[in-house]
Amino acid sequence: MKVESLTYESVRVRAVLVPLKRKVVSRVGFFDRWPLILIDLQTKEGIVGRSYLEPYLQASPRYIMPAISDLVEARKGKPLAPMADFQAGRKSLNLIGYEGVAMIANAGIDMAGWDALAKAADVPLAVLLGGTVGSVPAYNSNGLWLTDPDSLHDEAAELAAEGGFDAFKLRLGRDQLEDDLRAISQVRAAVGSNAKLMVDFNQGLTLGDAIRRCHALDELGLYWFEEPTTYNNLEGYAQLAAELRTPLQLGENFYGPRELYRAISMRAGDYVMPDMMRIGGVSGWLRSVPIAAAAGIEVSTHLYPEVSAHLMRVTETAHWLEWQDWADPILKEPFPVVAGQLQIPHRAGIGIEWDEDAVRRFAA
Asked: Are 228 and 200 in contact (CB under 8 A)?
């Protein structure tokens, strides 16, 4: 049954710690369990909008969850209108800043709000936004961390088999260039020379080291260099983008559309990849990616494969979806991957429901 309008009622916010199949070993940290914040946005009309956040640090739900609860409580009894609510929510917290917790909390509510609206219309989110349900090209980002390079051959073969992938995320930035070269060689030996290798330095290098390392790897046919140095050094990224032949990828740390615009206007990269939590959820994405499209910049995603897949179906310069299964253990029906393509199911809303037994098991 379709519902004409929705009204804020309440929100249930829970934290879980999900064990990872492959440990995250990167320049920004080590993780063997992944924190998620689960959001159930209750409307007066009985429809529940669902979303989740991936706040990286195990302690972070302690300060993000109260912000979500406070924002929803302030909207109780008001009409659900995510595009307008996103702006109002940010302004309500502008005295503590537009970035960080203020944006993250609003993004989580925003995604849940759009899920509720699509459920009220009884259509998938992509359809509500004027697109269609289908498949989205994806690369496997479930492994290939800064572990022993000699272990990466077998791991890469496993990643290829997980969903028929021919594109992969490989993390680089080891102390010695020779170890990065060996890692690339091991992965290529497993997945073939035609596979696409997106390499991510996780901001692990100084600008000087990034210049040296990226130039040393520039002729190896890598698909992109992602965040070789600190994300907000846009002047340094502009220098790298001008000097390198390999395309430069950045954007997972853009807080809202103005940051994306600033990076593009400075020619700081060749591709962008907004993160749902930081760009501002669905509303932030819809405001941001037309800027990239106007500049002819291809847009990929960062984490959040379920909601991101819907948005890629309505993004003019859609490029690659980052696929990882870190939320799968708490989902009733994870989205399938076939021949390297994420398949959006024909379900109303974003298409996610919690496996409550798993939620209880992994409760933080």
From this structure: no
